[in-house]
Design a protein that fits this description.
The complex is a heterodimer of chains A (128) and B (150). Helices cover 37% and strands 27% of the residues of chain A. Chain A is built from three helices and six strands, in the order E-H-E-E-H-E-E-E-H. In chain A, helix 1 runs antiparallel to helix 2. Chain A is elongated, with a radius of gyration of 15 Å. By secondary structure, chain B is an alpha/beta fold. Chain B has one domain: Macrophage Migration Inhibitory Factor, CATH 3.30.429. Chain B is globular, with a radius of gyration of 15 Å. The chains are: A alpha/beta (128), B alpha/beta (150). Strand 2 of chain A pairs antiparallel with strand 3 of chain B, so a sheet runs across the interface.
Chain lengths: 128, 150
């Protein structure tokens, strides 16, 4: 986690998908401090989206810890902008939604995920 | 009926491995979580459509539904039990597996979110595809495996 689930009307090229996934990892990790090892981005196409959108992003992110409502909204906006640029789609045709998960409900690398902001000690423990 | 959503990568597991993985999830879920019926839906992601840590992904993501107020110690136990058996069958590194046991309200947000973003035509196409896949799987007695592209 996070898991970014991206649906588009038309298929994106492999290069565009790669560019978009890299942009998401840069934005997510830059804003939240989360390690990129956690960032999953999945693409699917052929989805007729409502509201005339060409691309929709739903992201499951850890909630709580050092993440307040302001940071979460900034993340949503930056992801929307970054995806629009890297996928080459107009901003008003891109929608993004974030869904908050309690970290303790998920396990990765054999360990329950850390609260946001406590990743360093978690990584040291799980890799030690 | 409870639900489980699983994302795996194309060409990563054989049909036999998927059947074994489904069996261990059902067994551990029944033992640790609930004896309710469990619907498992596998999303097999085509090559080049998933990325983890700036690379083409080799990760599997398992999201299971549980009742509200499910105790954390039991959650830890079921996640650990599934992880141990999953890695034995899949041969994956622990970093390539994410497991989550999510209370029903949040699970519904996740499960329905991918449908709510679709137009009416999109929702009809999505539901029709899932129904076709479920009927095929029930008839053949195989896991329900969906390609997420419509």
């Amino acid at each position: 986690m996070p898991v970014y689930n991206i649906a588009s009307r038309q298929p994106l090229s492999y290069d565009a998908r790669r560019r978009t996934a890299d942009a998401i990892a840069d934005i997510h990790c830059g804003l939240t401090g989360a390690p990129p090892e956690f960032v999953n981005v999945i693409f699917m196409h052929g989805h007729p989206l409502k509201g005339g959108h060409d691309l929709n992003v739903i992201c499951n992110v850890r909630s709580g810890g050092n993440r307040n409502a302001e940071l979460t909204e900034t993340l949503r906006q930056k992801i929307r902008e970054g995806v629009a640029v890297s996928a080459g789609i107009a901003l008003d045709k891109v929608e993004a939604t974030l869904v908050g998960f309690p970290a303790s409900w998920a396990m990765e690398g054999g360990e329950i995920l850390p609260e946001p902001g406590e990743e360093d000690s978690w990584l040291a423990r799980s890799q030690g | 009926m409870r639900k489980t959503l699983i994302l795996i990568q194309e060409n990563q597991f054989s049909d036999t491995q998927v059947a074994l993985l489904e069996k261990i999830i059902r067994n551990h879920y029944r033992h640790h979580v609930s004896r309710e019926r469990l619907l498992l839906i596998w999303n097999r992601i085509p090559a080049g459509q998933a990325f983890t840590n700036y690379q083409d992904s080799r990760s599997s993501l398992v999201t299971m539904e549980c009742p509200p107020g499910f105790p954390q110690t039991q959650r830890n136990a079921v996640l650990k039990a599934i992880e141990k058996d999953w890695l034995k069958i899949s041969g994956q590194h622990p970093d390539e597996l994410m497991l989550a046991l999510v209370e029903e309200a949040l699970f519904a947000d996740v499960f329905q979110g991918t449908q709510k973003r679709l137009s009416l035509r999109g929702r009809i196409a999505f539901v029709a595809k899932v129904i076709r896949t479920v009927i095929h799987a029930r008839f053949k007695r195989i896991p329900i495996i969906v390609n997420p592209n419509l």
